[in-house]
């Protein structure tokens, strides 16, 4: 089977809700990263076999196959197709896995993977506003559980015995790491400025455990989950170019990483957000790589208990987890987040000579993706 490599990865800054990206249509924001991908690689967009685009709330601005309209907004040839993937928060990570599978199988040679979400314009829950997606049989199977991710995060915190102080300390650490990364320019090479927006808008440099302690719980009166230890509602887009090593050489491109393995799992839909734990085990087994060999982990910070439970179960080195901060500080533009995390991770790997990176995302409904990539020296 052929190898799949990533030769370039770019992202917009992640904008906060109502911030600098909030006036942009999702297709136009997508066009920013598609254009930058073509410019940075010098590739003729006509060579792209497909664009696989993640997006979660596929209504309004983001309806009717936003992946296709992203291609058209970018001014790329009309002959290039585009499709839209929804695996909840892991949508663009799944888009990357689909792109890698297409290239490895030989069905396609050059594929763009990525995603977008402009949550300022298409709010969280918009797709559920006019109906109930679960159906009576699903609700009956799980005793009428509301499938509320915040409640699931509370259940995880209780099951693993985390205190609110521990959750808030992790949240503050996310902001501290993100601020430190911004200060040394760790994101500069990967970010495509959008107008006056040149850096991620969500980082709160004055966040403290004491300030977070004053915030009211968001889901249970006596709960531990609140706005400060949860991911931020955000806007953003990211794109990656996937091909084979042979095609990369033909095009004069230098691969950054090879896609070693991808995995997706289902887990308890009531706890919902624990899937990254078995997904990590599965992707490591598929790749034949041991946990101690991994030099960086990106575990999406949907809520603070998620990466903390993952740490507790895997025994990974906490210093290698989300070293540049995560979604608590940098935001979580749903359909773009998988591609944003991959972009952040592989640039970090190249900057620091890290051989293996592992990324995993919890997802609504109790699924999770995990992807393992290897730096190409």
Strand content: 15-25%
Level of helix content? 25-40%
Rg measurement, Å? 19 Å
End-to-end gap:
21 Å
Report mean pLDDT, rounded to a whole number. 97
In one word, what is the shape? globular
Q: Any low-confidence stretches, pLDDT <50, length ≥5? A: none
The assigned structural class equals alpha/beta
As an assembly, this protein is single chain
The biggest beta sheet reads: 10 strands, mixed
**Number of beta strands:** 10
**H/E series:** EEHEHEHEHHHHEHEHEHHHEE
Number of helices: 12
Walk me through what this model shows.
There is one protein chain. By secondary structure, this protein is α/β, with parallel strands linked by helices. It is 35% helix and 18% strand. It is built from twelve helices and ten strands. Strands 1, 2, 3, 4, 5, 6, 7, 8, 9 and 10 form a ten-stranded mixed beta sheet that branches. α1 crosses α2 (66-73) and α9 crosses α10 (305-314). It is globular. The model has no long low-confidence stretch (mean pLDDT 97).
